Amino acid sequence: MSKRNNPCRATPAMSIITDAQPSPDDSARQADARDREDMEQLQAGHDAALNDLMERHATPVFHFLCRMVGNEDDANDLAQETFVRVFKSRGGFRTEQKFSTWLFTIAANLARNHFRWRARHPNLSLDAENPETEQSLGSTLPANNPAPNDEALTAERAKAVRLAVGKLPEDLREAIVLCELEDRSLAEAAVILESTPKAVESRLYRARQILRERLKSWL
C-alpha cells in the first residue's frame, strides 16, 4: 500500500475537544451507494472491484491507523491486512450495511490486536516520542491563521497535541480519533468499536477531560 502524499501528515487544523458532529450530505450518500455496488460486484466474483474500494478508502484507513498505532510502517501493514480481510470476508458483508463502518470495524480490530501484541513485546514497541509517531498522531489545536513567525509555536502546539493523544488509554484514544479526528458520529463509532453510543460518549468525555488537563498550557 502506497504511503505517497503522507496522509498522516496532511491533517487539517481542528479542535479535538469540541462537540460538533457533521451531518451526511448528498456526496456521502452517493459514495455509500458506490461502495455497496462495488461490494456486490466483489461478492459476485469480480475481484477488480476491490481496487475501486481501495482507491477510495486506502488513504482514510491508513490515516486512521496512523493515529491509532502511531507508526507509519505499522499502519501501512495493518491497512494492507484490512483490505485482505475485506476480500476474505466479502461474503459476510450485508448490502444494508454502510461499507465504511464495516471497513473501519475491521481496521479497529486489527489495531486492538496490534496493541495487545505490543503489550506482550514492550521492548519492540515504538514510543510516542519517536518523531515519526509525532507526525502520525492526533491533530492540532485551532489557530487563527498564524503569521510565518508563529510557525514554530504552531508546530510545538501540534506536537503537544499529538503526544497527548498518543498517551491516552487505548479505549479513549479510539473514541477521540473516531469521533473528533475521523468525524464519525457516536452511533457509527459505537458500531465500529462494538460498543454503545452512550459508552462511546462516556469515553469521549473522559478523553476530553484528560486532554484539557494535559494541554491546559496551550488553551
Description:
- The chain has 219 residues and is an all-alpha fold.
- The chain folds into two domains: 25-129, RNA polymerase sigma factor, region 2, helix turn helix motif (Rna Polymerase Sigma Factor, Chain: A); 138-219, Arc Repressor Mutant, subunit A, CATH 1.10.10.10.
- It contains nine helices and no strands.
- The chain has helices at 26-43, 49-69, 72-88, 99-120, 131-136, 151-166, 170-181, 186-192, 197-214.
Name the descriptors.
219 residues; mainly alpha; Rna Polymerase Sigma Factor, Chain: A; Arc Repressor Mutant, subunit A; 2 domains; 9 helices; 0% strand; globular
- Give the CA-based shape: globular
Kindly report the CATH topology of the largest domain. Answer: Rna Polymerase Sigma Factor, Chain: A
Our estimate of the beta-strand percent is under 5%
> What is the count of distinct domains?
2
* N→C terminal distance: 37 Å
Number of strands: 0
Q: Short description, anyone?
A:
The chain is an all-alpha fold and 219 residues long.
Topology of helices and strands:
Blueprint: H1 26-43, H2 49-69, H3 72-88, H4 99-120, H5 131-136, H6 151-166, H7 170-181, H8 186-192, H9 197-214
